[in-house]
From TrEMBL:
Residues 7-160 form the NADPH-dependent FMN reductase-like domain. One of its GO terms (molecular function) is oxidoreductase activity. Gene3D superfamilies: 3.40.50.360. It comes from Billgrantia kenyensis. This is NAD(P)H-dependent oxidoreductase. The keyword Flavoprotein applies.
């Protein structure tokens, strides 16, 4: 009988704002991952500040310490679940800059190797009527360029200001169901891909 180890999934939002709607969504997704049998690690990018990517800075000083910390986190996880705000129809500079630094070599190993064979799900919410869907198309493209397999049917939640209850839960049942389904699918696929691997637990 095949055994499935609980997959580890790194979760973060492309916003440093304390009251970010996408942070709320990322936290909810982390909870859903746990309920589906995965091991979720939610991080706040506010805790990992990075300079704007600069090749000269990299050449002179190497990778910033926070970039190395993020790479170490990625190495410990088989999956990603990213919540993407939308700035003028694009992903945020924070999301792009974070992934750019994470993809760089630490002098021993290419950062791209850390992304290879990872599986990701992407979600978004915004105050507008499209829910950040335009940013998700670009995030999917960027992750694909890094070697990540991105699940289809991403979740975009419109009218973010009305989408969450005071407790931080999604108000709409159909949106809750779609988030549940996406997180279950990510956990199930990763568990099957890494079947019989020993679980590291907590």
């Amino acid at each position: 009988m095949t055994t499935y180890s609980a997959p580890r999934i790194l979760v973060f939002a492309g916003s440093a704002r304390e009251q970010s709607y996408n942070k709320r969504l990322a936290r909810l997704a982390a909870e859903r991952v746990e309920q589906a049998g995965g091991l979720a690690t939610f991080i706040d990018l506010r805790d990992y500040p990075l300079p704007l990517y600069d090749g000269d800075l990299e050449n002179h000083e190497g990778l910033p310490a926070n970039a190395r910390s993020l790479q170490a986190l990625l190495a410990e996880h088989q999956g990603l679940l990213l919540a993407s705000p939308e700035y003028n129809g694009f992903i945020t500079p924070l999301m792009k800059n974070t992934l750019d630094w994470m993809s760089r070599s630490d002098g021993k190993q290419s950062g791209l190797a850390l992304f290879a064979d990872r599986v990701a799900a992407v979600v978004s919410t915004s105050p507008g009527a499209f829910g950040g869907m335009r940013s998700l198309a670009l995030l999917r493209q960027l992750l694909g360029n890094l070697g990540v397999t991105v699940l289809p049917n991403p979740l975009a939640i419109p009218r973010a200001a009305q989408a969450f209850s005071e407790a931080g839960e999604l108000e709409d049942e159909s949106q809750r169901d779609r988030l549940d389904a996406l997180c279950r699918r990510l956990v199930t696929i990763l568990a099957k891909l890494h079947a019989a691997e020993p679980s590291n637990g907590r």
